[in-house]
Amino acid sequence: MNRAEKKILTLETRRRELIIATLESIRKHGYINSTINTISAESGLSRGLISHYFKNKDDLLLYAFRFLTERLDEYFRYVVHSAAQNQFEKLLYGAMVPFTGDRPYREVWLHFWSASRLQPEVAEVHRELWATYRKGVRRRIASLAKERGLEIDDNATALMYTQLIDGLWLGLVLENTYDDLTCRRIMRDWICGVFKEDPRKYPDTPPIDLSAISVQSML
């Protein structure tokens, strides 16, 4: 490895360390209360070094948001493609993914949700992410409905699918009055109802070893 390659590797490593430290700072202190000082304390790196790699705090927070969404997407794809054997199961197990663990990073995601009301850049990333996600869900619903000869409003059903997940997820994080298993069973029963399937035929957890993978392990 030549000097230029080592420099690039060091740059990427430092940026990654700072991004992970930022996520930890947000988890502990919240989005608004995370500062260069709290991030510096989490990373063990100086304020000056942080400024060398990122323009300012908002720039670093935005990078951290994009980084987290990419890791969550990787986790989602891994679970769905490992567990599902057909299009229906991809839709089914995809709805269970938000309720399969990594509670600390749910709290971080909630802070980013809140920040999207205050930070236009975060809101834009969130809109892009959700638009792409809903488009994929709608396409899968339309394909399944056609395959099974069902009359389904794919747009409304995709909206219900995503909003039901969001509502259950938000209540799970904020209220702590029900658990992941309850959410997975609700999603399973609802999706099976839409597509005329017997929910008893399907497990209430994606049929893979979830202990071997987590969002944390992908950071």
TrEMBL record:
Keyword Transcription in annotation: yes
SUPFAM superfamilies in UniProt: Homeodomain-like, Tetracyclin repressor-like, C-terminal domain
The keyword Lyase appears for this protein: no
Record's keyword terms, sorted: DNA-binding, Repressor, Transcription, Transcription regulation
DNA-binding region residue numbers: 35-54
All copies of domain HTH tetR-type, residue ranges: 12-72
InterPro entries in UniProt: BetI_C, DNA-bd_HTH_TetR-type_CS, Homeodomain-like_sf, HTH-type_TetR-like_transc_reg, HTH_TetR, Tet_transcr_reg_TetR-rel_C_sf
Any GO molecular function: DNA-binding transcription factor activity
Pfam families (UniProt xref): TetR_C_6, TetR_N
PANTHER family associated with the record: HTH-TYPE TRANSCRIPTIONAL REGULATOR RUTR (PTHR30055), TRANSCRIPTIONAL REGULATOR-RELATED (PTHR30055:SF228)
This protein's name: HTH tetR-type domain-containing protein
Annotated source species: Microvirga ossetica
